[in-house]
Amino acid sequence: MLSMLIFGTISIFVKNIDLASNQVAFFRGALGSLFLWGTLLMRKERIPSALIRKNAKFLLLSGFAVGMNWILLFEAFRYTTVSNATLSYYFQPIFMTLLAPFVFKESLTAKKIACVLLAMMGMFLIIGVSPAEGSYNHPIGIGFGLAAAFFYAVAIMSNKKITCLAGTPLTALTLVIATVILTPYVALTSGFGLGQLTGGSIGSLLALGIVHTGIAYVLMFAGAQAVESQTFAVLSYVDPVTAIAVSALFLKEELLPIQLAGGVLILAAAFLNEFVGNKENQIATNEE
């Protein structure tokens, strides 16, 4: 729960960093990598090079997807409210449901299709009342949020293809790969922007890299190992609820009732998708 509370407050720090989204993503990966590798060194954990070579293809895909996920999510925060970005970002379980038949050869059941349609209905409610206004361009921001959700789904599905690696070692490798992939891209486009950093931006970057990446991921994996998967799925909803509360209380962003209704539909669809999927898998396992 603590890790989800930390993830839910990420927008406060991202909005206080005077850098482009790709630069923020790079520094997040670099700082998070340093923290997690330091954690592995303290624990005296080593990752066999044979496992890295064995999973190289999916590690590279996961690292690329994580880097894109960060860039797109931070862009969403710039173009729309935190509430809209978070709710569109929570479309990730729906993307996984749609991709699973092609990646894992899983069947797309009527119940899962109903969850997809429910989530789409919620998204239509949000987009329908989110025209461009002031410094925001909500449709573009929501589009970035949906794209970020897609790449997050790709990262998770890539990790499911990785064998004999999990927890902190897998996360540390993924962050390093994401940072390495982002390095030439940032260097050739915007540069690293070190000269633009102010005291406030440096503090927010440190919080983003160490607390919201390193510490939060360590806590999340520790919690995931201690509770059942359905309990973990339920607790993950602390993240969007916290983000929406932060948006209203600290960033003073308005959330209209119809947008709130759309958000409830998306979160309900994601929750039901988790519950239905786990229940169906359990039944299938029992039948075998």
UniProtKB/TrEMBL annotation:
The chain crosses the membrane at residues 20-37, 58-81, 87-104, 113-132, 138-158, 170-188, 200-220, 232-251, 257-276. One of its GO terms (cellular component) is membrane. Keywords: Membrane, Transmembrane, Transmembrane helix. This is EamA domain-containing membrane protein RarD. It is a multi-pass membrane protein. It comes from Trichococcus ilyis. InterPro entries: EamA_dom, EmrE-like. It is found in: Endomembrane system. Its main location: membrane. Residues 1-127, 140-272 form the EamA domain. Belongs to the EamA transporter family. Pfam families: EamA.
